[in-house]
Write a structure and sequence with these properties.
By secondary structure, the protein is an alpha+beta fold. It has two domains: 1-140, Beta Polymerase, domain 2 (2-Layer Sandwich), CATH 3.30.460; 141-237, no CATH class. Helices cover 42% and strands 15% of the residues. It has nine helices and nine strands. It has helices at 3-13, 15-18, 30-34, 57-63, 142-151, 156-172, 175-186, 190-205, 219-236; strands spanning 24-26, 47-53, 70-72, 79-82, 89-95, 105-107, 114-116, 130-132, 135-137. The strands form three sheets. The chain has a five-stranded mixed β-sheet, covered by helices on one side. A two-stranded antiparallel sheet has the order 6-7. Strands 8-9 form a two-stranded antiparallel sheet. The longest helix is centred in the C-terminal third of the chain and has 18 residues, at 219-236. The protein starts with a helix and ends with a helix.
Length: 237
């Protein structure tokens, strides 16, 4: 079964939750959704991340009974695993726009515990949701999600995957998205700005991964963004 078919089927399965205002699809599937025709060729991982605003936690919990083809994992209750091989795993994470991007906390709840990941505070809903096969899929603005991936200080395979998601977003970014990214970057703390530039440098040196966005082919694009951010730093001095 093609990855795109599994992605769309999973979005259909979680559609009741996506109808809750403020809920967003976040993470590695967003570049796939933003491709023309939702081509879904920028595959970095095979899971769907659902961002739940902390103020909508109770409302989202009430919608969980409407999910079909997914069941809550007994080991990690924020993860819903597929009963159907045609679906992808679904991870629920918390978002709090008022939170410091450097802070992370846990909402403990038997029905739906949530890790409230600080960098997700950078996300804002896109002006228009994605429409695919009759589904309306809310996604974040590319600028915020790109920065969320670039401020995340992870190492190893997970860190590389975050950077590849950022690369996928940069490959699809329009000039206005890059302008917005630079504007939001200027509002970050010096420590987070340093992390962004460091991660872009790492991304520019990464080798190609099979069937994933190719850093080697996009080094000019990454270098251009890094140059803009360096210029923003000099202008702020």
């Amino acid at each position: 079964m093609a990855f795109r078919d599994r992605l769309v089927a999973t979005l259909r399965a979680v559609a009741p939750v996506l109808e809750e205002p403020g809920v967003l699809i976040v993470g590695s599937e967003v570049p796939n959704l933003l491709q023309a025709g939702v081509a879904a060729t920028l595959v970095v991982s095979r899971a769907v991340d659902v961002g739940v605003p902390v103020e909508r936690h109770a409302e989202v919990k009430r919608r969980l009974d409407a999910l079909r083809g997914l069941r809550q994992s007994p080991e990690e209750r924020s993860v819903w695993v597929p009963d159907d091989p045609g679906l992808l795993e679904v991870n629920f994470v918390g978002m709090d726009s008022r939170r410091d991007p450097m802070d992370t906390s846990l909402i403990e709840d038997e029905r739906l515990p949530l890790l409230v990941f600080g960098p997700l505070a950078l996300l804002r809903p896109a002006a228009e949701p994605v429409s695919v096969e009759g589904l309306i899929v809310p996604v974040p603005r590319p600028s915020g999600l790109t920065l969320e991936k670039l401020v995340t200080d992870r190492t190893g395979e997970k860190g590389e995957r975050d950077l590849l998601v950022a690369l996928g977003l940069l490959m699809l970014a329009k000039p206005k998205d890059l302008d917005e990214l630079v504007a939001v970057y200027r509002t970050l703390s010096p420590e987070l700005r340093h992390t962004v530039r460091s991660n872009l440098t790492v991304l520019s040196l990464m080798k190609a991964h099979a069937q994933m966005p190719n850093p080697e082919a996009e080094r000019t694009r990454v270098a251009a963004l890094l140059s803009r951010l360096d210029a923003a730093e000099k202008a702020a001095q």
